[in-house]
């Protein structure tokens, strides 16, 4: 995998180290325990997708990870060609293994002898790459899907521009990501330990809406909900937080947190136990979808005026 390009200026970007993100997701086993949240959010995304009339021929899962969403998308759109993209080659290898395991020996035999009939069952094409620099041409896909991945990129505004570029006219973008209230308990706990940033400063839903409009999308729809996961122990809570990624900030503390400072943070989490004895962890989940509209001008700058004749 080639090194990821350096980030350029972006008004609403967090100082995220993309190479650090890639490293944090270099071990699929490490992230396995957090799969429950991605699956829950994916289910809620599919409920929203069901309200949109679309029959895509080509679908891109941006940030496909181990490939679970590729499977559900293929079931929803069995005639569509699937493309999975992720910055982690290790996650793509896990996605490839999952696809192979999903094919029975009979299906593999039929794929060998009847490729024209079994074409879609061969699985998705997988590509390693950066959200803001997709290895795809103009108008390449009809649907861009991205589940809990956008918040790992330092420049979501530029990502939206790139996603619009690869979408065909009237193509749909549908994504989810974490919002500012995510990990608020963890943020408060580490504030008792030191002044270093331990949690991403997630982007606000309204800022995402502005970015979509500025990127050239039409009729963006944004909504948000708060999910609370409860834990019986601080140890399990922290294990899940690590499984969800970790801290990729370039401004993160480089050395280990001292024993006393760590204990202060853990004590704050312990003190947040509810009446039922459980420790809460908040996730603000942002959902967004928008369409790529028809162009308003030609490549040479002439305005395009559309006339819809009255129907007889």
Describe the structure.
This protein is α/β, with parallel strands linked by helices. The protein is 37% helix and 20% strand. The protein has helices at 18-24, 28-31, 35-49, 68-76, 89-102, 105-113, 115-118, 156-166, 184-191, 205-215, 234-243, 259-271, and strands at 58-62, 81-86, 125-128, 141-147, 167-178, 218-231, 279-291. Strands 3-2-1-4-5-7-6 form a seven-stranded mixed β-sheet, with helices on both faces. Helix 4 (68-76) links the parallel strand 1 and strand 2. Helix 8 (156-166) packs across helix 10 (205-215). The radius of gyration is 21 Å and the shape is globular.
List the helices and strands and how they pair.
Elements: H1 18-24, H2 28-31, H3 35-49, E1 58-62, H4 68-76, E2 81-86, H5 89-102, H6 105-113, H7 115-118, E3 125-128, E4 141-147, H8 156-166, E5 167-178, H9 184-191, H10 205-215, E6 218-231, H11 234-243, H12 259-271, E7 279-291
Helix pairs in contact: 8-10, 9-12
Give the structure's gist in a few sentences.
With 312 residues, this protein is of the alpha/beta class. It has helices at 18-24, 28-31, 35-49, 68-76, 89-102, 105-113, 115-118, 156-166, 184-191, 205-215, 234-243, 259-271; strands at residues 58-62, 81-86, 125-128, 141-147, 167-178, 218-231, 279-291.
């Amino acid at each position: 995998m080639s090194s990821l390009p350096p980030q350029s200026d972006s008004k609403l970007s967090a100082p995220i180290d993309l190479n650090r993100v890639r490293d944090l997701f270099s071990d699929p086993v490490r992230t396995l325990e957090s799969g429950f949240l991605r699956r829950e959010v994916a289910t809620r995304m599919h409920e929203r997708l069901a309200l949109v009339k679309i029959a895509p021929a080509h679908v891109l899962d941006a940030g496909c990870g181990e490939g679970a969403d590729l499977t559900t998308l293929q079931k929803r759109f069995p005639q569509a060609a699937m493309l999975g993209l992720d910055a982690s080659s290790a996650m793509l290898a896990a996605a490839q293994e999952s696809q192979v395991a999903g094919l029975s020996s009979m299906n593999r035999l039929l794929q060998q002898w009847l490729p024209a009939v079994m074409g879609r069952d061969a699985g998705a094409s997988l590509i390693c790459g950066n959200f803001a620099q997709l290895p795809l041409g103009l108008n390449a896909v009809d649907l861009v899907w991205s589940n809990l991945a956008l918040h790992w990129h330092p420049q979501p505004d530029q990502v939206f521009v790139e996603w619009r570029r690869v979408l065909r006219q009237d193509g749909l973008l549908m994504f989810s990501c974490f919002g500012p209230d995510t990990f608020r308990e963890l943020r408060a706990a580490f504030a008792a330990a030191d002044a270093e940033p331990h949690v991403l400063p997630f982007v606000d839903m309204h800022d995402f809406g502005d970015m979509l409009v500025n990127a050239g999308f039409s009729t963006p729809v944004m909504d948000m909900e708060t999910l609370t996961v409860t834990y019986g122990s601080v140890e399990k809570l922290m294990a899940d937080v690590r499984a969800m990624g970790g801290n990729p900030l370039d401004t993160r503390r480089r050395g280990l947190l001292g024993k006393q400072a760590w204990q202060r943070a853990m004590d704050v989490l312990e003190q947040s136990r509810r009446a039922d004895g459980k420790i809460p962890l908040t996730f603000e989940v942002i959902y967004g979808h928008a369409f790529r509209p028809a162009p308003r001008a030609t490549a040479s700058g002439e305005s395009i005026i559309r006339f819809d004749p009255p129907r007889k």
